[in-house]
Structure prediction request, 356 residues.
Amino acid sequence: MKRIAIDMDEVMANTFKKHLELYNKDFGETLTPEQVVGRKLRDYHPHRHQEIQAYFDNPDFLRDLEVIEGSQEVIRELSESFEIFIATAAMEIPKSFTAKYEWLQEHFPFLNEMNYVFCGNKSIIHADYLIDDSTRHFKGFQGQGILFTAPHNIHETGYTRVDTWWDVRQLFLGGKSS
Amino acid sequence: MKRIAIDMDEVMANTFKKHLELYNKDFGETLTPEQVVGRKLRDYHPHRHQEIQAYFDNPDFLRDLEVIEGSQEVIRELSESFEIFIATAAMEIPKSFTAKYEWLQEHFPFLNEMNYVFCGNKSIIHADYLIDDSTRHFKGFQGQGILFTAPHNIHETGYTRVDTWWDVRQLFLGGKSS
Prediction:
């Protein structure tokens, strides 16, 4: 059975949406998703780099993120034909561990928690595929990287790209539907 | 550069010693390490299985474990010639995340935290070697498993075994000394 490793933030969990909403509210801004396309929020307003990153240090921020559309349905389908691991870069934000664990348990109860991986450098992941929104994680990864579209990566080229979970289903399961 | 993944409990951190001391104290027992050789403490007194496992749910238990002799010195030496990752089975005890992270930061400050991996099923680890006290983690691991002697595994055969960190040094660095 082939193995697919899946990133959490911006792939399963809609980190960006909540981040932008909170930032706009807290700083009286009116940034739209379209305005920050091609870069990270922190790169758009670099003078508030620290404040923008600080949201991630709050476990409550990560605990109630929205699930990205289609991820539950398609990951459940994939899990019938592939071995699924969740590989999330948690080491940059150690305070995120419990929130990430609980979020996965709540929204993806059909996944085995023994298949969660909280790591930093994803070259340690032994899998055939890695679905991720950050191309940096494909460097050193031995399998095939699949770039999940997020506002910040929209201009990156040279990778197999999927825009939605329906694209992921098409890629791995073809015309097969549930 | 070849990569070595290293387990924490019973390899870097002396979980067993503290567990046995606390258990003896709390339950008025006088078990010696020699008496529980070849099995886990929970298998020795199965009627207290739950109480014995409950120690691991206390983050304080894991936070101040003794460092296993030689691990700091030898891992530092190995890190000059090998890529070192720490691979610990944390998913069975989600409350352990922060304690494990802080313990590593305190006792192994020379390691990059991006190379910590908190996981469950270690077949996800992409490394050339895995030093571990639990043979179950060698199943599905693609590299070479190296069994680090702990009381519970003393009777297991069929694996490359190291009794101490000096044995690890000898195995990977030969006669070379710091």
The beta strands of chain B are 3-6, 83-89, 116-119, 129-132, 144-148, 160-162. The first helix of chain B runs from residue 15 to 27. DSSP finds seven helices and six strands in chain B. Helices of chain B lie at 15-27, 41-44, 49-54, 59-63, 71-78, 97-107, 165-173.
